[in-house]
Specification:
Length: 285
């Protein structure tokens, strides 16, 4: 366990069926396996493929039905247990669990990620939910949602006046999910979420195709030598082109502001749309 930090937390199922400290063995087994999967999967998504996380289960203590987990995580990186909501966070930090409570039964249509560390979830009822990008990524991930369904929703299904409780290693409550709230932790269908990322950069490009009549039909060569289609959004530049105030040649280098819009539907290859917002100047002029 060298160079790893140790974390412990507890979960309990408080239902009529667990009043005698028993629980359906199959449901509990699946929940424990899913806990391992969701923590390891979230850790890889947040901290990268090289990050390692291991999980152990301790014998349960007195309570409705308590399972204590001990996790060992690489010291470098973000704690996925805090991001998910299985451990306390400082301040009013948003977690996957608190986000799913806000999301309720609404479906996610699109995830729009910005450069400020936040993402906007476009929902099925035409409303938005803004979340930290790491939280949004896990909320929209089918594998994470599959595991949370098995850990939280499935064991409480069919029970009344039941709750799922998360406690820290000192027994203090971190999160409580009622049987009604647990219904909103169901998994999501595959390939229903798009991620849209917008990046605006200063680039130096060569124009390889121009269209004097429209904003479409333009093409530029990027610094990596790739040829890409762009929509020309700089009306002033188009006007100069139409007046022949700008000269084009294969060797004429222009400094531009280029917006790249990446759309990625899970399970498919991403698509790109590029908009040339401004032609700043011709290099050498």
């Amino acid at each position: 366990m060298d160079n790893k930090s140790k974390y412990a937390f507890q979960i309990s199922y408080d239902t009529l069926e667990t009043a005698n400290h028993t629980i359906d063995a199959e449901k509990l087994g699946e929940a424990i396996v899913s806990m391992s999967k969701v923590l390891k999967n979230a850790n890889k998504l947040i901290n990268g493929e090289e990050s390692e996380l291991s999980l152990e289960v301790k014998a349960h203590t007195e309570g409705s039905f308590v399972v204590e987990f001990v996790s060992y995580l690489s010291s470098v990186g973000v704690n996925p247990m805090s991001i998910l909501g299985f451990m306390g966070t400082t301040g009013a930090g948003v977690t996957v669990i608190s986000a799913l409570k806000q999301l309720k039964s609404r479906k996610i249509r699109i995830v729009e990620q910005s450069s400020d560390g936040m993402s906007v979830l476009k929902l099925s009822d035409d409303t938005d939910l803004t979340l930290p990008s790491q939280v949004a990524e896990l909320v929209a991930n089918k594998h994470v949602r599959d595991s949370l369904d098995t850990i939280i929703k499935a064991p409480l299904e069919g029970s009344t006046a039941a709750k799922f409780v998360i406690k820290d290693d000192q027994g203090a409550e971190v999160n409580i999910i009622t049987d009604e709230e647990a219904k909103d932790f169901k998994t999501i269908a595959q390939n229903v979420v798009e991620e849209v990322t917008e990046v605006t950069e200063r680039k130096e490009v060569y124009f390889t195709k121009v269209n004097f009549e429209s904003s479409t039909g333009w093409q530029v060569r990027l610094p990596d030598d790739s040829l890409v289609a762009v929509a020309m959004k700089d009306e002033a530049f188009k006007e100069r082109v139409n007046k022949r105030d700008e000269k084009f040649s294969k060797t004429a280098l222009f400094s531009v502001r280029l917006k790249t819009i990446k759309t990625h539907r899970y399970g498919t290859s991403p698509t790109y749309k590029r908009e040339l917002l401004e032609v700043v100047r011709q290099r050498g002029n």
